[in-house]
Design goal:
The structure is a single chain. By secondary structure, this protein is an alpha/beta fold. It has helices at 38-44, 87-90, 132-135, 138-154, 171-182, 195-203, 233-242, 263-268, 281-293, 310-319; strands at residues 2-8, 11-16, 26-35, 60-65, 74-77, 80-81, 101-102, 115-119, 123-125, 163-167, 187-191, 208-210, 223-228, 243-251, 272-275, 302-306, 326-330. The protein has 2 domains: 2-137 and 299-330, Quinone Oxidoreductase, Chain A, domain 1 (Alpha-Beta Complex); 141-275, 3-Layer(aba) Sandwich (Rossmann fold), CATH 3.40.50.720. The longest helix is centred in the middle third of the chain and has 17 residues, at 138-154. It has 10 helices and 17 strands. The protein is globular. Strands 3, 4, 5, 8, 9, 16 and 17 form a 7-stranded mixed sheet that branches.
Length: 334
């Protein structure tokens, strides 16, 4: 099969790889669409020791099952493979499973390829209302949905009474803004440094879209809910600066792990700081339903490219040359 293989920092090759073989518990999926995630970019730059070269990256996948009891089904892939038996798995918090694995991280190859295998319990059928390319957004949007669900749980105010700030308007940030709106929050500010992505956020109906690097763009202490979908020292600092007393900050982004956190202000203003990692299967299903119903908008903020254009896509993302919040590759064209 054809696959994009990460071979070293800023090096990706399109080459032939052996077809994966499904075990009795797996399904074989012909990959119709797979998104390039920020974590793929992190690995591409050589900044993720969990993803050593050589490795097939990519975990935001949708496709068609080939063979077995689910043959022919259009599905999205929940890429988190968990044990299913521990306390976290049995309580519906399987994203916290200590034995969790994810495709695109050893020992599991990723989905920038024509075929992948995944346990059958990790597939969710695609609603008829969604085409394959849009269905591949389920994974990043489930991450957004999970983060907003945590914000709703910890917020002192109902979302329909809250002022919200989202740091970043890539797929997860824009998805968080869309999820906030779908769940009743009408006052959403989006902060994004890339001018092209700011235009994309404006096209989705968010009237307050700012460049956080401009002095005075973000008021101090105005937001009841802050979603940091970037997760670097600059966005953490801006999130804490912008949060109201008694507010909640949900930290989703994995840009880096140090600096930018004003623990003194968080303590003195009794701000709740919550980490949010991926999603549960319930989040995944709720997200797909919201996508199919139109609650998350038209989803027309993506750019689809062929698998062989993937090397250029990584470079375009690195250089900030695309307005798309998500580039989707189409390996098998199903």
């Amino acid at each position: 099969m054809r696959a994009l293989v990460y071979t070293g920092p800023q090096q990706i090759e399109l080459r032939d790889e052996p077809d994966p073989v499904a075990s009795s518990e797996d399904v074989l999926i012909e990959v119709g669409a797979v998104g390039i995630c920020g974590s793929d970019m992190h690995a591409y730059l050589g900044h993720d020791e969990r993803r050593p070269a050589p490795l097939i990256l990519g975990h935001e996948a949708a496709g068609v099952v080939r063979g077995g009891a689910h043959d022919g089904k259009r599905v999205v892939v929940n890429p988190l493979v968990t044990c299913g038996t521990c306390r976290d798995c049995t309580s519906g918090r399987e994203n916290l499973c200590a034995k969790r694995e994810i495709i695109s991280m050893p020992p599991r190859q990723g989905a920038f390829a024509e075929k992948i295998v995944i346990p059958a319990r990790n597939i969710v059928e695609v609603p008829d209302a969604l085409d394959m390319t849009h269905a591949a957004l389920a994974e990043p949007l489930a991450t957004s949905w999970h983060g907003v669900a945590l914000a709703k749980r910890h917020s002192a105010l109902p979302l329909d009474q809250a002022r919200a700030l989202v740091m970043g308007s890539g797929a997860v940030g824009l998805g968080a803004a869309l999820a906030l709106r779908a769940l009743g929050c009408s006052d959403v500010t989006v902060a994004e440094t890339n001018e092209l992505r700011r235009s994309t956020a404006l096209s989705q109906g968010f009237g307050t879209v700012v460049d956080p690097t401009v002095e005075g763009a973000l008021d101090g202490g105005f937001a009841d809910v802050v979603i940091d979908a970037v997760g670097n020292k600059h966005t953490r600092a801006a999130a804490v600066h912008s949060a109201r007393p008694g507010s909640v900050i949900v930290h989703i982004g994995l840009g880096d792990g140090v600096d930018g956190f004003d623990a003194r202000r968080v303590t003195l203003q009794e701000i709740t700081f919550v980490g949010a990692y991926t999603y549960t299967m319930n989040d995944f299903k709720e997200t797909l339903a919201a996508m199919a119903s139109g609650a998350l908008g038209d989803l027309e903020w993506i750019e689809a490219r062929a698998l062989e254009d993937g090397i250029q896509a990584f470079d375009d993302l690195l250089q900030g040359r695309t307005a798309a919040a998500k580039i989707i590759l189409n390996p098998a064209g199903v």
